[in-house]
Amino acid sequence: MNPVSIIIGALIGGFLGKWGGMVGGAVIGYLLGELAGMGERLAELENDVVRLRKLVKPGADEFSRPAAPQSAHPSSSGSAPETPVATLQVATSGESPSPARETAPSAVTVSHREETAQTDFVFQRVEEPVPPRCEPHPSNPVSDLLGRLFSGENLLVKVGVVILFFGVSFLVKYAAQHGMFPLELRLASAALGGCVLVATGWHLRNRRAAYAQVIQGGGVGILYLTTFAAMRLYHLVPTMAGFFFLVTICALAAMLAVMQDSSPLAVLGTAGGFLAPELASVGSDSPTMLFSYYLVLNAGIIGIARYRAWRSLNLLGFVFTFIVSAAWGGRYYRPEYFAAVEPFLILFFLVYTGVAILFARRQQPALKGYLDGTLVFGTPIVAFALQAGLVNNFEFGLAWSSFVLGLFYLGLALVLFRLAPHTMRPFCDAFLAFGIVFATLAIPLAFDGRWTAAAWGVEGAALVWAGLRQERLMARGFGYLLLIGSGVAFLADAGSPTGSWPVLNGFYTGCLMLSGASLFSAYQLYRQNHRLDSWEAGVGTLLFAWGMVWWFGSGLHEIDRHLPADVRFGCFLTFIALSCGSCQLIRPRLAWPLLDVPFLGLLPAMVVFAAVQLLTGVAHPAGEGGYFAWPLAFVVLYAILWNQEERYSLFGSFHAAALWLLAALGAWELHWQIGCRLPGMATWALTAWGVVPSLLALMVIRRGEAINWPVARHYGAYFGLGTGPLVLCAWLWVIGVNLTNGGNPWPLPYLPFLNPLDCATALVLFTLAAWYQKADTMYADLPHGALRTLFAATGFIWLNAILLRTIHHWGGIPFTTHALFHSMLVQAALSIFWSLLALVVMTMATRRTLRGLWGTGAGLLAAVVGKLFLVDLASSGTVERIVSFVVVGILLLVIDWFAPVPPRTGEGGGA
């Protein structure tokens, strides 16, 4: 089917007759496209027949018979007598001959000894060279359609019939509107013209079959149009007589099509019949007449299907019948029409169910039981959708409809299985599936959505189990769909009221049934995976995930609904941890590897819960039940890690990640406890973020090898992957806090080095040194130079921070960037301090002949000199400026005396 022909026909028809013209034009476009395609296929078949005839009955010019032999005895020269040879040259088409064939063609020799002449005939097959094949040009659907329409034989008659059909319909309509000619005469003339066309086509059927069939189809369509107009539009023909004529015309079209084996004739005649009400501009709100008329047409279709397997005719009737029915229902249906419309919908459904079966039985022996998916699957879907609109006002109307439809399909599957169990097996499977679907669908239509979904889930699990035992893929597939669909249906009804009892309520019970059904099915698939395809193993994994989602989701929902807020979070985490632990307990008994998945998600879930606590405003990890949940979660985590020690190689990363999480939670909790229990001690609370990671890292560095499990067993992971990020975070904390915090030691007075901030900084630096010392023994490729520079820079920042905090507390200068930068006291103190520090560094470098270290001190002195002239010099007339210049000058003299440039020998001598 070419959609372009349908679109073009619909556009042309829309310009001519609005909605009705559009429908008619689309159908005519479809028919013309099909006829053009059939003409092409017929031309190809004719060419094949001509080619085969040439091969079987070659012309006289293709034979060459040599003269008779001169002697029957050997010649005097001793040569053998020549044998008469007849050569048959057969031209074949195919691929181009190779050069070898051009020089020495192969010969196929068949010897035939005649009894009288004793003559051998040699048939030589000569392959003619084939011209080179041209690359096909990309096809254009529009140009292909126009080429088929405006080329080939019977073009004029095709276009003429289409124009004539529309012309007659427009003539009838125009004449009726303007009172031209008596009405009876107009209708009789149109009917006579249709009869003439039918008779002419029948007379010419043996001369030009295609031409004759098009003429007959157009005549049948005109008879349909005229009869329907006389009966329904003008009421000139009684109802019974009109239907008698319609039945007669329908039978005539069917008979002509079957007798001439002409699918286009049947399609044209039937399409004319379906278009007759629309082309006559009849828009009735009374369904009986219209649907009775369409029932007659469908009777003709099913009669033809009894003798011919014409799929295009079946699809045409199906589309017209149900589209017109849906369009009429959308415009005119009212509840009082139910008794008149319902029987027709049932009959239409039965007609096309029967047409699909007849179509399969009329196939070639090799295709017996061929299933037309459009009719088999489309009929129940469309009919049930229309039925839903009809029974919308009846309580349980759609539920009963679904139940009856399910019983019908189950019974039909049983009948077909008994009559033709082999040839009709696809129909049996399809109808069995439909029966189960519609019978199952009756449950949600009659009962509460949650119980419906739960019943679906259990039914899906039963189908999977039965499908595995009976090795029926279709049953298993339907079970998979039910298991997933039951969850979707359950969610769709999640807002309905439920019971007030914890656990013992409809919502949670339904969730447990869905989860259990999915997990049961997944386990059954795992047990039978050696007999299944690989894709069904993926389905088993999907069902396991689906069941776990329902298990965890329903549990969290139940906790949120029934438990108080002050313990809700702890119960969330406890439920997750105990569920993962339970999976690990039953995993060895079931030998089901998928039960390891919940444990693998436990640590990520703990991280997510910590983030949720932080983002939702929970003050500290122990809040809202975290005081009992977090210890339990870590116990379960480490118990599973110990139990599965030999199974997974990635457990080292799990141990390291657990150490990170423990450090973060411990620092957070200690920070909150100090800040909450000891108000005003913000600096003490701040030190928790550096102290806790440092202590955990020191424990691993100093005592980790003495702890047999888990640290010593995974010491590489604990030290490298575990303590590395901890000491990095502690170092970042040192840098940040020394650059931004004033270090208020309340209630103690401030003393340099002897305050909580400097003590915590010293602990972090000690931890960094210990980590570096241990790493130097474990890793051979450490960047020693970069790490030493990092330590020196960190110490420099810390010492400057101590100086600034001392000036802040003792000099009363606010610890802000603006205040400190514009304080001459701070600038003078920094200049003197940097100079003293340069003196110490350069003196040490001179004594140890370290030119590189001496260069560092010199660089620091250069910075001091630059600062003196760029910053300190701006504060003219201050004591601080004088002191800074004098002291720095003296120090420069001292440095020059005590710390000259070291010689080039020793470390850094070449620097």
UniProtKB/TrEMBL annotation:
InterPro entries: DUF2339_TM, UCP035905_mem. Residues 65-81 have a biased composition (Low complexity). Keywords: Membrane, Transmembrane, Transmembrane helix. It holds the Pfam family DUF2339. The chain crosses the membrane at residues 6-32, 155-175, 187-204, 211-234, 240-258, 265-284, 290-307, 314-331, 337-359, 371-391, 397-420, 427-447, 453-468, 473-492, 504-523, 535-553, 565-586, 598-619, 625-641, 648-668, 680-701, 713-733, 753-773, 785-807, 819-841, 853-870, 882-899. Residues 61-113 are annotated as: Disordered. Signal peptide: none annotated. PANTHER family: BLL2549 PROTEIN (PTHR38434:SF1). This is DUF2339 domain-containing protein. It comes from Geomobilimonas luticola.
